[in-house]
Amino acid sequence: MTTTPDEKRPTLDLRGLKCPLPVLRTRKVLRAMSAGAPLFVLCTDPMAAIDIPNLIRESGDVLEAQEIADGILRFWLRKGAAG
Predict the structure, then answer these.
(1) Containing domain of residue 74, as a range?
(2) Which candidate in 9, 13, 19, 53 is catalytic?
(3) What is the mean pLDDT of residues 47-76?
């Protein structure tokens, strides 16, 4: 992970990875984070548009925003209070 200078939030770059790797790696990173911590995720796998929001709903974390531009999916996440 790196930090994007504009947002000061850790970035998980999963471009080029295919399902199920983006959601599995996102889950692993979120589990290790403290409650309230932000995370920015980049993906190119179209299934991530379904899988990551489902992960967030099941985990109790927060999907702050989501967009797709130039074939890249971007997710602004925040670690929830629970687990």
Answers:
(1) 2-78
(2) 19
(3) 96
